[in-house]
């Protein structure tokens, strides 16, 4: 389990909403701090190593979920004050639910019930106003993209998981996230 004083931030959402771009911008602005760590997207690494695998099956998503948690555990430590995650183990639940496997999504959510409280902030990036770009790893269409976003909203609201929806231009998205990080740093 993460040490209690670590502020752990997850950037979550459907494909192509700016998560990795914002993650890299935060890495550029905060990366020099010795007590800030960055956890890259687990799903992209998983699919690059496992091309052709059934992407949205609950079994595949469970492997990604385990890998995401493993990546977060690797960087935790007593000196870590801020952990910023490009995605989270919650993404697997939304993708499975959007694919129509409600039982699988429920199982995946149960699997991470112990881990969700380790996130001090979950930022759900909205797809509104962000054009979709297919890149070979990202292969879903715009309808599925919206279904994933809707699944995120439903999961977060139904389970009363604290989160903030991030909208607007890239600059506004980054500014909102940075303000939360700054406010938490000042408070600690």
From TrEMBL:
What's the name of the protein?
NadR/Ttd14 AAA domain-containing protein
Q: Where is the NadR/Ttd14 AAA domain?
A: 8-173
Signal peptide annotation = none
The protein's superkingdom reads Bacteria
The record ties this protein, via SUPFAM superfamilies, to: P-loop containing nucleoside triphosphate hydrolases
Q: Name one Pfam family in it.
A: AAA_28
Q: Please give the organism.
A: Candidatus Blackburnbacteria bacterium RIFCSPHIGHO2_01_FULL_43_15b
């Amino acid at each position: 389990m993460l040490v209690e004083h670590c502020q752990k931030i997850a950037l979550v959402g459907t494909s192509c909403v700016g998560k990795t771009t914002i993650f890299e911008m935060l890495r550029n602005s905060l990366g020099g701090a010795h007590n800030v760590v960055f956890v890259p997207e687990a799903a992209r690494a998983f699919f690059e190593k496992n091309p052709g695998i059934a992407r949205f099956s609950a079994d595949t998503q469970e492997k990604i979920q385990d890998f995401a948690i493993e990546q977060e555990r690797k960087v935790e430590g007593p000196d870590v004050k801020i952990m910023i995650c490009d995605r989270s183990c919650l993404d697997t639940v939304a993708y499975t639910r959007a694919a129509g496997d409600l039982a699988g999504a429920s199982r995946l959510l149960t699997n991470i019930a112990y881990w969700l409280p380790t996130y001090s902030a979950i930022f759900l990036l909205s797809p509104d106003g962000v054009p979709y770009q297919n890149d070979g790893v990202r292969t879903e269409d715009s309808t599925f993209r919206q279904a994933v976003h809707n699944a995120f909203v439903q999961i977060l609201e139904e389970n009363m998981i604290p989160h903030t929806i991030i909208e607007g231009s890239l600059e506004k998205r980054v500014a909102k996230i940075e303000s939360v990080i700054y406010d938490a740093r000042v408070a600690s």
